[in-house]
Amino acid sequence: MDDGFSHGFRRFLSGFDQDFFNNNGIFGFLKKDPLFSCKALGNLSKASSVSSIVSIDSYAAGYWDSGFESTSEKSLTTPVVSRRVFLGGLPKDCALHNIHSNLRGYNFTHVDWPSRKSNNRMMGYCFVEFVDEQEVLKFVEGASEIGGRWFKSMRFSRRKEMEIEIRPFFLTNAEWEADDGYPEDSFNSTIFLGGVPRDATAKQLADALSVYGPVFQVSIQLETRTHYPKGVAIAVFKKKECFKRAMSAKLLLFGAPGFRRRIEMKPFIDKSGVCPMCLEFSSMVFCGHIDCLNYSCNECYRIYHEITQNDHSNDCIGRGTFYTSFSDRSRRF
Questions:
Q1: What is the pLDDT of residues 66-76, one digit of tens each?
Q2: What backbone torsions phi and psi does residue 35 show, to the nearest 5 degrees?
Q3: What digits encode the pLDDT tens for the residues 17-52?
Q4: Residues of each domain in the chain carrying CATH 3.30.70.330
Q5: Alpha-carbon dihedral angle through residues 171, 174, 177, 178, given to the nearest 10 degrees
Q6: Kind and range of the H or E element at 299?
Q7: Which listed residue, of 115, 164, 248, 316, carries a Cα 20 to 30 Å from 137's Cα?
Q8: Whole-number Å distance between alpha carbons of 282 and 115
């Protein structure tokens, strides 16, 4: 997890007060900013009132004002969509030059085309990285919506035109927050999600996590350069009991149109924090045993479990530890 993301959540986890949530706080700003509203973008069915064809005018880049009057005030452009776009359903005889020919007229930097490790054959999908978000919006222009998925006509070799699925990631889908209520204890109600599908939305994750209880907020971590999802997220429950139920389950069966996957749930552990037992500033660990489920520093963890005579050494969770291998988490079932 990069330092910028960690630093932001360090403030988030330091404890809430009312000023943090009022109109002067960061959440007040986000609520007033249409680019961070779930109603602003990301819903293809509302992109055009005429037909199911996407209109680029519906996704024009937005601007926000800092709220301070100054002669040197400038409007700052806020990114709307990731520069990285998924293309799926490529034919088996497709070659790289075929993809380039279909991208003629668009400014892109490169095509990332994964291959199978077993036989080095190219996968049936690729990622295209465009120079800026305006090129992405231009590429999306004219795409058709079928069953909640986006398709664009392309031609490969001597084939007739075929529909290729495209998945642009709109940044409004990276954040979700409940309309009412606040966490009882943000520090003990926050979980880390690993193995999140790249096209999953924060709202979909919140809906899936609701089986453990009411969710307050979900935030998907994005790459700094392209604003494309990294495959990890952070979620905050409203109650600690919900957090404990999620920690007991450890794995979440996440299903959405087009995919199902096991998502790993673990406690959110910052690089360092204040131990709730000794009140010293130190690196933190978490006891994942169902009878414990508490944060502490390494020394307090050792002393506490010696006193209680409970050997939970196999349940000690630190930063970067996972319950399952990536292959098990991404296996389709």
A1: 333 333 333 34
A2: -70, -20
A3: 444 444 444 344 334 343 333 333 333 333 333 334
A4: 45-171
A5: 110
A6: helix 298-307
A7: 115
A8: 43
